[in-house]
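hiii, so i know i said id send this last week but things got crazy w the move. better late than never?? heres the sequnce for the chain we talked about at the cafe, plus the structure i predicted for it. fair warning i was half asleep when i ran it
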Amino acid sequence: MRRFAILFALFALASVVAVAPVIAAPEKWTPVTATQTAGSGAFSGIKLNDGGVFFYDAVGAGVVVLHTPTVDYTLASSSVLNGTINTKTDGGVMHFKMLWEYKVNDAVVGGFEGEEIGKSTTTKYSATGIPLPMYSTNIYHVVLHGFGEFDGQMLKLDGIRPTQTVGMTTKPVEWEGFLLKG
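okay and structure toks below
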């Protein structure tokens, strides 16, 4: 009888060990890239002081093309920006609330929303002391959660928007990272 109990316990343990990897399987992830073109923006609040520029409730809009291995999605991008730039060190930190919407026949069928944080280095300012975007290098990190068609998915991306080269306008943000499916 004792042998049967030991064999039964070993069988039960082997069953648990065989099932555990299936239960603990990691989320599926897909490498993705994206290009976010420079869009329009408006500042509802800017405060200048000796050595600092503070932005608050600045809104922006543009377009993001999300490249997956199987399909490219064109999404409308909108954001609300709050941030600071130290004009003595030319460094700054930006916080964004992001929304990327995927539309079909002008109706939103899904998208991604979340938070973005960026670090900025500015090399040129307007005559009034406002940083010029095309003369700033920005490094971003974003986590966006899907809704609608992308419900249950998450984007984790790192991006860079380098300073313009001579004769160019503001460069697009180039993103790379992962699309996680829960």
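btw The helical segments are 2-23. thought thatd interest u
miss u guys!!
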